[in-house]
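DATA SHEET
Item: assembly model
Revision: 1
Owner: S.N.
Input lines:
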Amino acid sequence: MANSNNGVGAMTAGYSDANYHKKIKMQSTVIFVVCIILTVICLLPIYILVVNATRTSTDITSNGVSLIPSLHFFENLGKLKTIKEYAISFNAFYGFRNSLIIAVFSAALSVFFSGLTAYGLTVYDFKGRNAAFTFILAVMMIPIQVVSTGFLQFMVEIKLYDNYIPLIVPAIAAPQVVFFMKQYMESSFPLSIVEAARIDGCGEFRTFLQIGVPMMKPAFAVQAIFCFVTNWNNYYTPSMILLSNKIEQRTMPMMVAAVLGNDKLSDYGVRYAVVAISIIPVVVVYLILSKYIIAGVALGGVKE
Amino acid sequence: MQSLQPSRRKSISYAKYGYFFILPFFLVYAFFMLYPLINTFVLSFFGNGRANQDTFVGFQNFQYILAGGSRPAKAIHEEFILSMKNTIILWIGNFIPQIALSLLLAVWFTDAKLKIKGQGFFKVVMYMPNIITATSVCALFLSIFGNTKYGAVNSFMLSNNMISEAINFVTDETKSRVIVMFVQTWMWFGNTMILLMSGIMGINPSLFEAAAIDGANSGQIFFRITLPVLRPIFIYVLITSMIGGLQMFDIPYLFHEDVNTIRPSLQTVAVFIYKHFHATDPNYGYSAASSVILFFITSLLGSVTFAMNNSSKDKKKNKINRQQAKARKQLGGF
């Protein structure tokens, strides 16, 4: 830890002796090796999963770890439909469709309305602004678990269970996203631009849409990704709200959990295949977007 | 415009738009979060089970959970205390390695002197576990660390004669906890690393240049510049990790091989709450009461964190902001 710092210009600051360069080079090598080890730790479980999804159950039970893929992936996938126990607890199409609906709408609503709220709190100096922001900061701390008992009971009372509304609409009020966006705006949104727009006769809401949104794009992108991932991965709320646990309504995590919770399903190849189909598309999409995602995450950081 | 307003006022007030902009947030929040929160508090004073749901019992649920008593109360008390203990153990066990690893990597990757090769690749790989669904991750690690001889690690070690009988990765208290901690760290360190990295990259490079010219060594630069300037984002990471830690649910809840048996060594508070309100005969009283307890713990932790962040420097910044706001107001309408 003691040997490192940021500093674009630090290297030009007058170090020249050979020892120093040697030391730096050694450090870089050590760090590189550490990173390689971490890479292996990150990738190995996923690799084992992919390989095992292509093997038959008998192969896996005789030796669980193999680095050489086999050819039974589609056979395993086929069993998902032909074996009744699998067919009643897992359906990839429903799973992806439902997860996608929830994640896309939640991310869109969350980002837009959080941007709106953060903009309102930053640009306008109205009475109660500080109180409103303090409230947001305070409730940011409250985990969903704390409200879930009252939430579920309320949803059951107004008959909104087994419905996607309680899974999507609450995304409008995301205190953490508002907090992040406000931080971002404070550091990189010059308020004079709003005034310039006013002088040009631009309406307030239009200013938000045409100036605020484009300027907050990096923050929007980062938060949209985070919201999408959070909602895509969410198991707690959907399994709480979708009480009947109908297969047409299950999200992907619920499908996987249903397979996990069914001890009649002892075909290990199919088990790995189930996990693989739930993971691989996400990984592929991530790898395609990764440059954008990582850059976006880095760009959206809170500055100074 | 001038005629509509008092003559001394020179600016048009746009303040009212602020309310429109923040209105949707507060409406939705009130309906989906605030009311359920209040409802949780109310439910915590009512009886357990569907039949007793409308019976007002005062603080009895809290008394049972926190203090125990006769037989049913003792059982729920012990269960709650164990859940609390599990949550703390699992949270600390994943947060400390995670923040240490992330900070280390973030500092390394942003160091211009070191010029780590393949940075882009490492970042992509290390963030990847975070993008994968927790339930799938759980299923994956459950298959790898299966309890029986069919689990990947067990069958690998057995067939290579490294062990003579299968290791109870899932049923053993310590081993299962270590695996869950590992999985949580595995999933989250990349995310934390990128957040910290973006914070470090946001630091004005001239600060580092100045320090280097003044002869500061890397350690001094790290502790005197990087860490203090990084504090806001560090606290953001701490807060979100804390919230995440108290929410820890998916993996502890699903990390078992027998159907419908949550491992007692992994039952977190979130699992405890869920288990009681999601039963066929929901015990809203117990889960609401434990939610309320969780609420107070979170509030306490949260205010400590914010008190730490609210230093004189921020106050100074606020003062400057206020002055700027005042200046803006005066210039407002020209």
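QC remark: The domain at 77-311 of chain B is CATH 1.10.3720.10 (MetI-like fold).
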